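User: Here's a chain of 222 residues. Predict its fold as tokens.
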Amino acid sequence: MVLLMKCVKITPVLIAVALTTASCQSGGSKAADSASRSPASGSCDQSLGAPVKKAMKRVAGMPVSAKTSFIGDPQRTAEQLVARYEVGGVGDLSSIAFCGAYKGSSGLDSVMVSYYLPQSTPEKGKAAEIFKEYRMGKTALAGVKVGVLYFECSSGKFGGGAGTTVLIRGEVRIRYEASESADAARKDNLHILHDSSRTLASLLDCKSNSGLSATFSMPSEA
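Assistant: Prediction complete.
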């Protein structure tokens, strides 16, 4: 989230309010600070497929021909999530960067995907008006400049022989205005979250890939 408070318990209603704030700000740099700047093996540039990269460019209003760098380290993100869980970091509102799309090779991110360990999902029907709710993972919220996906990961990496089930929240934020329609932007945001989260679920050894389908298709509204 944009708010960087530590270990604060918030209600589902406040989550919706905070998400509204996130969508109205030009954040992303804080998450980018923790992203790897090296396109090394295992980077998001290699982990994410062409369709989701195109979705990132579309939702950020970048021409297909524009030079774009996809920077981030999914393996590091997975390790940081496990480390945060081990120190009791559930509810920590600081972001863990996953992948960002940048015009050229540096500067501010145009699109940033980040992950968190929330305490709970937002109460159904209590999301801010800028969002539509969708049936993907535990629940998904999509707006034009921000999207959120909650999913559960059951994995031995979170401790215990049989594994522990942990709630994870992915968020994609767009810095600039989208050049596509609102419906198209929502679809692209959900596509970005789906593919990014499936990649993360694979790295975390989440049981059944956290219920995320092998390929993205637009989910129905909740």
